[in-house]
Amino acid sequence: MNYEVRFVPSAWKAFKSLPREIQGRMDYRILSLMSNPRPTGCKPLIGAKDRFRIRIGDYRVIYQVSDQDLLVLVLRIAHRKDAYRKGF
């Protein structure tokens, strides 16, 4: 069972603005969410149902998992200092 990975427009824009080296590392980890949306090392976000984060160096990828629709929705990609601010 593979999940589909989608980005919200703001997360896609943040991804495209990153340096190529970081994009490559992030791309591999995000695509791996297709086969395992809750990999070792992912953390659930407190107070948000079905939202998780994975750590990739100094960056965080915050995403939501819908098991019913087999969908992983990437909500935010940000540096760790900005990743948890309100507004996503």
What features would you describe in this structure?
Helix content is 24%, strand content 33%. The protein has 88 residues and is α+β, with helices and mostly antiparallel strands. The chain has a single domain (4-79), classed as YaeB-like fold, CATH 3.30.2310. It has a five-stranded mixed sheet with strand order 1-5-4-3-2. The model has no long low-confidence stretch (mean pLDDT 91).
Number of domains: 1
Oligomeric state of shown chains: single chain
Quickly give the structural class: alpha+beta
Under CATH, the homologous superfamily reads: RelE-like
User: Whole-number average pLDDT?
Assistant: 91
Q: Which consecutive residue ranges, at least 5 long each, have pLDDT under 50? A: none
The spatial strand order of the largest sheet comes to 1-5-4-3-2
Summed up, what is this model?
Helices cover 24% and strands 33% of the residues.
Topology:
Elements: E1 4-7, H1 9-16, H2 20-32, E2 43-44, E3 51-56, E4 59-66, E5 71-79
Parallel strand pairs: 1-5
Antiparallel strand pairs: 2-3, 3-4, 4-5
Task: Write out key terms for the chains shown.
88 residues, alpha+beta, YaeB-like fold, five-stranded mixed beta sheet, 2 helices
